[in-house]
Design brief:
Strand order of the largest sheet: 6-7-8-3-9-10
Strand content: 25-35%
Largest sheet: 6 strands, mixed
Number of domains: 1
CATH architecture: 3-Layer(aba) Sandwich
Length: 258
């Protein structure tokens, strides 16, 4: 479905943020991206979504080289935007319509999809947004905005969902619903997070990025989450000193951050 071949990326006049990444994503996979803040997880999702191009290397979608030029062609761009969606970490950047109802219907309208009213009604019920449909998105709470942003993607019925810290503003009940929905949807997922508890729920495979943008690990998520030296190297664990009966001990601890 997606293949990266020696992909590196740097913002203009900046050092490499992502360095020589090579991996492929198969249809139906649930892949979790783990790494500390600033390691390039969000940028990698933007690359996979075609919003930015690699500085070097190749990014292919179903064998086709995915470039800005390719996506500028109307038919190609429309097909890819229906296929692949990205949930940003800050939902505010995704919301710009005057009402929640129009926000949920915007993507399907732009892509010429059928049954727009039915799509909006279904996903507003699923995410308990019915009472907000005629309100302005900017008036909602952070968690409600996150739900609107998520619903606006689900109305497209995409095959590949790229999710950047999807639980950051959601209440525990909604996080539980989201995990169940995504795991049983049949959709291909790439979820970027540093929430290790959520990571363990969302997939079987993970890629751990170093703070220098290299791939440290690509394999079973259970193996990664029990490898404290790996998590420490990635900035997801730290060594904690404490004294017990007058003797100082040093232990590695992994933590979740929101």
């Amino acid at each position: 479905m997606i293949e990266l071949r020696h992909v590196s990326f740097a913002w203009p006049d900046e050092a490499l943020l992502l360095n020589d990444l090579s991996f492929s994503l198969q249809r139906g996979e649930k892949l979790v991206l783990l790494g500390a803040n600033g390691c390039g997880k969000s940028t990698l999702l933007r690359l996979l979504n075609g919003l930015v191009e690699p500085t070097s290397g190749e990014l292919r979608w179903q064998g086709q080289l995915l470039t800005r030029q390719y996506l500028k062609q109307a038919d190609h761009g429309r097909t890819f935007r229906k296929f692949c969606v990205l949930l940003f970490q800050q939902p505010e950047v995704m919301l710009f319509n005057p009402t929640v109802r129009e926000e949920l219907g915007y993507g399907p309208r732009q892509l010429g999809l059928p049954d727009i009213a039915e799509r909006v009604a279904y996903w507003s019920r699923q995410l308990k947004l019915d009472e907000f449909l005629d309100k302005a998105p900017f008036l909602l709470s952070g968690g409600q905005k996150q739900k609107v942003a998520l619903a606006s993607l689900l109305t497209l019925d995409p095959e590949l969902m790229l999710l950047d810290e999807p639980s950051s503003s959601l209440d525990p009940a909604t996080v539980g619903w989201l995990i169940d929905e995504l795991l049983h949807s049949g959709k291909t997922l790439v979820v970027a997070t540093h929430n290790l508890s959520l990571a363990a729920e969302l997939g079987e495979r993970c890629i751990v990025l170093s703070q220098q943008g290299h791939i440290l690990f690509d394999g079973p998520i259970k193996s990664a989450l029990t490898d404290l030296p790996l998590l420490e190297h990635a900035g997801l664990a730290h060594r904690h000193k404490h004294q017990h009966e007058g003797v100082e001990h040093v232990h590695s601890h992994a933590h979740d951050w929101q």
